[in-house]
Structure formats: structure tokens, C-alpha cells
Amino acid sequence: MVLWGPVLGALLVAIVGCMWLLGMLRQRRPREPPLDKGSIPWLGHAMAFRKNMFEFLKHMRAKHGEIFTVQLGGQYFTFVMDPLSFGPILKDAQRKLDFVEYAEKLVLKVFGYRSVQGDYRMIHSASTKHLMGDGLEELNRAMLDSLSLAMLGSTGPSPDASCWHEDGLFRFCYNILFKAGYLSLFGYTKDKKQELLQAEELFVEFRKFDRLFPRFVYSLLGPREWLEVGRLQRLFHKALSVEHNLEKCGISNWITYMLQFLREQGVVPAMQDKFNFMMLWASQGNTGPTSFWALLFLLKHPEAMRAVREEATQVLGEARLEAGKSFDFNISALHQMPVLDSVMEETLRLGAAPTLLRVVNNDHILKMSNGQDYLLRSGDILALFPYLSVHMDPDIHPEPTTFKYDRFLTPSGSRKVDFYKAGKKIHHYTMPWGSGVSICPGRFLALSEMKLFVLLMVTHFDLELVDPDTPVPPVDPQRWGFGTTQPSHEVRFRYRLRPAE
User: Which stretches are transmembrane (predicted)?
Assistant: First the structure.
């Protein structure tokens, strides 16, 4: 027993020594970007990065310029901050920058799903077939029914629906969008009232997982939190099991198509359950938070709210809900609302902050827009953070921190697509959905779902903030880099259904 002390001490010294060597041995090679390893061996800048990614990258950019490599927990990330240099990265015709490898490791860790060959292409193929064109129109109609169910209940508007109700705006939006999206994609039994209650219970568990998600990805959970994550994973695998799906009707063609592919590849049902959990997260993890920002910006900017309502009246007519009825309007009207489109695009510019990652498979030369070449080292990860480098660039978007509902409208009222940086037209003027091989395959469904919800809220409900002077809350710093940001605190609001005339 006495010998264990020296043995453990020697082991600790060896581990610390290895960590120190891993950090100290790497040196910047000729033509490589500036290298900043930080002061802590192996960890490097990991703690500062995880504390507030946005502020950390602002500091690194001011220190090193438009491209730099930093050490984060034993891994080296090269950040490119110049949007005019994004083209070669996003196109990558030679396939030297791999997105799939990183994504497969992440979904295995977070959702327990082990990818099979070809499933990444299959997801994009399924999305092209069922989340665009006629397939999207069909799913939009199902989404409208599910939004009616989630917002009005299984029996239609309650007698007190025209009375004022108070709630947290973030919770309200996230709750409604989650339930509607879940029911639209994964179906329901004949007992819609019970399905709605189960969806509500599932949302509570989804939010628990959501709160742990950023630190889970970074492996920063405490012992009890790791146990809680395991419990939540098992709960969702069971709730979304393919066996349970057999009891339901109305499962979307999108989900059905993908599960059929997995069955044909011999994927066992337990792994299909994990795939379903991954798709639930991918489809519902950002729509609620984005809708929160959209409604908050409209409530804080009355001129924007008026413009959206006036456009809706022109396209749809006066919106009044008859007693005992669900929401009903022509889904194709969503394509005739450039003001609403601009509001959503501006909301995504201000609220969406994903990180785009590529693994460098072989040493690779990156040519920047200023003509300078940089050597990217094999095994490193190339990263883009468009929120800072594009969305908040005052050259591309004047007054970038200000919500301007018509920022993406031309003087004639059509969609604006011409934006410039340093006098050059820029193709990637917003990137809320990612881009290139990592672009979100479900973006058209997500956007339609959010537009439907916002449209229903502003046309069928009276809305107001409990405190009209409440400021827009700052972003929770843990959410930078994980899709749509979330507020650091709740915002209270009131709503009531407009009575039928």
C-alpha cells in the first residue's frame, strides 16, 4: 500500500510532462498562419474559448489578423476571419477539407448514433426530395395543423383564449415550435389530446438536454451531469423508437425515407432509435430560439410589426379565427411575403452563430483574398465563425448590431442580394445555415416552420411586452458556435387571441 504514493506521483508527473511536451513541441512552420498556443500546456486557450467564444475570437483577430491557429484542448484550430477568402474553403473541389469525419465523431458522442456508409449523402437526398417543392408544401400543411394543435389545443380555442395570458417569450416559442415540429415529423396516435400532453413532457426533457448540450460537447460535465445525459439519451431513444413509431400515423415522408434507407443497410432498430433522436435535435434545436428573437425584435420595433401585419393583410386578408376552428390559410402565401422574409433573414443574421469546421486531411495551401498563401497542417481543424466575420462586419452590414427589418429589401420591395466588402460583391453575406458540404439540409423546412409560427402570432394574436422598456437580453455566452443563440435571461410578454368578428 505504501508504494502506491510514489507510483501515482510518478504517473502524474509523466502525464503532466506529456501534456507539456504536446504543447511545447509544436512550432510554427514557414508559411503557416500565426500560432498562439496559450500559456497552459495542452489546454492552450480552451478555457477562454469555452467561456466566451465570441470575445475570444475578437481578441485573437485583433492580435493576429485574418487567419491564426490556436490550441484548444490538445487540438489545433485555424480560424479564417476574412469572408472574401471563404470561397476556396467552402468549395474545396479537391476534398482536402473533410466535414464528414468531424460530424460523425460528434453525433456518435452526443446522440450515440454510429454512421453507416452513405448516410450523410442519404440525408441530403431525402431533404431534397421531401423538404423542397411539393414535399415541402405537404409538410407545411402538416406543420400548420400541428401548430394549430399546439397553440389552440386539441379542441380548439378555449373560452378564455381572448383573455390576456402572461408567459416567458423564450419558453413559449420554444415549447410551441418543439411540439409542432415533433408531431409533424414523428406522427401521432388517434388520441391527439394525449399526444399533446406527451409532447409537452418530452419538451421538458428536451430542454434539460439542451441546457447541458454546450458543456457536453466540450466534455465539461460533472459526474451527476454525465449520469443525467445518459438518462436523457435513453429516454429519447425509447420515446422515438421505431417500435413505438409503428403505433403512430402521419409520420413524415422525410423520416420514413431515411429510416427505410437505414433498414436496407442492415442498421439495427436500436441504432435507428438513436438516429431519430439526432434528427429531432437537428430539426428542433434552433427553430424555437430563432422564433423567440424574431418576435422579440418585432415587439421592440413597432414599425417592423406594422409592416409585417400590413403585408399579411394584403396577401391573406383580415385574419380572424372562427370559434371551434383551426388556423387555415393558403400555404403558398408564404412565398409572397418579402417583408416577412427580410425580418427572418435579419433575425438569423443577428441570432444565428454556427461554427463551420473542416478537418485538414493533408497539408493544404490556402490562398487568401489578399494573394497571400498559408500552409494548413494535416490533422488540424479549419474553422469559420461567420457571426463575427460576416454578420457583424460593418462594411457588409452597416450598424451591424441594430435590427433593421428591411435590411434585406430593395427600394422596390424585392429581396436584396447585393452586398459588398471592400468594394467587392460578396457571395456569403449571411451564413446562418452553414455553407458548402455542411449546409443545413433542413433549412427550407425550418424557415417555413418559423415563418408560419411568426405569421400566426402576429395576425391572430395581440402581443405586448410586460415591460415595454425591457432591453433585448444579451446572448448566453455558452451558446456561441452552437447554431442559434439563446438569451441570458427570459423576457416576459402577454398575448391573447383576437376574437372572431
Answer: 6-25
User: Which distant-in-sequence residues (6+ apart) come within 8 Å of 420 by Cβ?
Assistant: 395, 396, 426
d(CA 435, CA 366): 18
The pLDDT score that the predictor gives to residue 24 is: 62
Does 390 map to a domain? Answer: no
For 175, the grid coordinates are: 415549447
Q: Mean pLDDT across the chain, nearest whole number?
A: 90
Please check whether residue 280 is in contact with residue 185, taking contact to mean a CB–CB distance below 8 angstroms.
Answer: yes
pLDDT at 323: 57
Residue type, 107: V
Does 140 carry a binding-site annotation? no
**Three-state DSSP class for residue 266:** coil
Q: How many CA atoms lie within 13 A of 443 on its CB side?
A: 16
Q: CA nearest 479: which of 206, 215, 103, 109? A: 215
Residues 145, 326: contact at Cβ < 8 Å? Answer: yes
Cα–Cα distance measured from residue 266 to residue 145, given in angstroms and rounded to the nearest whole number: 34
User: What predicted TM-score, i.e. pTM, was given to this entire model?
Assistant: 0.92
Strand partners, 462: 496
Asked if 450 contacts 176 with a C-beta cutoff of 8 angstroms, the reply is no
Determine phi and psi for 194, rounding to 5 degrees. -70, -40
The boundaries of the domain holding residue 94 are 26-113+355-384
Q: Which three cell numbers stand for residue 264?
A: 436496407
Residues 56 and 32 in one domain: yes
CA atoms lying within 13 Å on the CB side of residue 219? 6
pLDDT tens-digit series, residues 382-437: 999 999 999 999 999 999 999 999 999 999 999 999 999 999 999 999 999 998 88
The tally of domains found in the chain comes to 2
Q: How far apart are CA 118 and CA 116, in angstroms?
A: 6
- Position 416 in a domain: no
Determine whether the annotation assigns residue 173 to a binding site.
no
List helix spans (H) across 112-252.
Answer: 119-130, 133-152, 169-186, 192-217, 223-239, 242-245
How sure is the predictor about 93, in pLDDT bands with cuts at 50, 70 and 90? low
CA 285 to chain centre: 6
Q: Cβ–Cβ contacts within 10 Å for residue 327, how many?
A: 18
- pLDDT, tens digit, 9 for 90 and up, residues 129-169: 999 998 999 999 999 999 999 998 876 676 677 789 999 99
- Residue 9, C-alpha cell as written in the block: 506521483
Cα distance between residue 173 and residue 233, in whole Å: 24
Sequence length of the chain is 501
From 349, 443, 433, 424, select the one nearest 90 (Cα to Cα). 433
Contact 476, 449 (CB under 8 A): no
Domain shared by 200 and 295, yes or no: yes
163 is in an annotated binding site: no
72: β partners: 44, 75
Collapsing DSSP states into helix, strand and coil, what is residue 24? helix
